[in-house]
Each structure stands twice: as structure tokens, then as C-alpha cells.
Amino acid sequence: MIAEAWEASVMHGSPTRRLPSAWRSTWQRSAILRALDGCPDFVSARAMHETLAAAGTTVGLTTVYRTLRRLEHAGQVDVVRDVTGERLYRPRPDDGHRHYLVCRRCGLSLAVEADLVERWADGVSAATGFAEVEHTVELTGICDRCHPAPSRDTLLP
Fold it and tell me: Contact 90/41 with Cβ under 8 angstroms?
């Protein structure tokens, strides 16, 4: 679900995230960055496009997809996939990418500590001689809100 604060941020203020220096700055890309910076959670390109359109910003869906993919390649967004396989985007924190546990029902995402994964990826890179190794770890489940714990009454025979 897209938060109202995110929708309001689409048209106001300037993006805190900057386009990679090799990119030409356009008003469409700036609008996408503003929307992304105000995004409270992971969002699909289609949902971002709909929010931009609802706010009166005419940006083509292809432009949204291309910009998000370029931001991904530039390391400025984290990406997960929803249950249908659609890519969802979220601004990457300045101190690096995160791994997330994502609810398959409502889309709630929580950053999780993954130092073991990072050390493993670094070890594989060092052992094989590969450089610029990237990795994706996707953790999905059902959050407490969508799958509440059984009551005591249901546990008793």
C-alpha cells in the first residue's frame, strides 16, 4: 500500500538522492527520485507510475521502469520480488544494501541483519578471484499481522 505521505512528496521538494553523474538530469527523472525518496516501503514501478499520474505528473511507465533499473545498477536502490515475481524498489541506505524479510501477503518489509551472508559473499569473491560480486538474498514469510499466533484455546485438546 502506498502511504499518503509518499503521495504528497511526489510533487513537493527536491530529491535527496541524486542521479548518477553520467546521467542527464530530466524533470521526469527528478520526479521519480522525489517519489522514491518519499517511499515508505518497497514499491513497484507500476504503483509509482500510478502515484505520479494521480499527482498530475505525466511520466511514461517505460521511463519509470528504466529509471528504477538504472538506479538499481548504480546501487542506489534495493530490490525484492513479490509473490508474482514483480520487482519492488526501495531507496538504498547510504551505508549499503540491506537484506529484507518480506511478508508474502501484505508486503511488509523488515531489514534483517545479514553479516554472515556478506562475509560468505566476500569469501566466495576472494576464493574465486571474481571482482564486483553482487548477490541477492530473498527472505519471505507471513508477518504476525497476516498470520496471528494461535490462541491458547486452539492449542488445547
Answer: yes
Mean pLDDT by 10-residue block, N- to C-terminus, for the chain (157 residues)? 40 48 78 86 92 92 94 87 85 79 83 86 94 83 84 56
pTM above 0.70, yes or no: no
Query: The C-alpha cell of 43 is what?
Result: 514499491
Q: Give the Cα separation of 57 and 41 in Å (integer).
A: 21
Give the DSSP per-residue string, 42-53. -EEHHHHHHHHH
Residue 88's H or E segment, with its range, is: strand 87-91
Burial of 91 (0-12, 13-18, 19+ CB in 10 A): middle
Report the distance separating Cα 19 and Cα 23, nearest Å. 6
Of 75, 7, 84, residue with least CA distance to 47? 7
Maximum separation of any 2 CA atoms in the chain, in Å: 67
Contact (Cβ atoms closer than 8 angstroms) between residue 49 and residue 61? yes
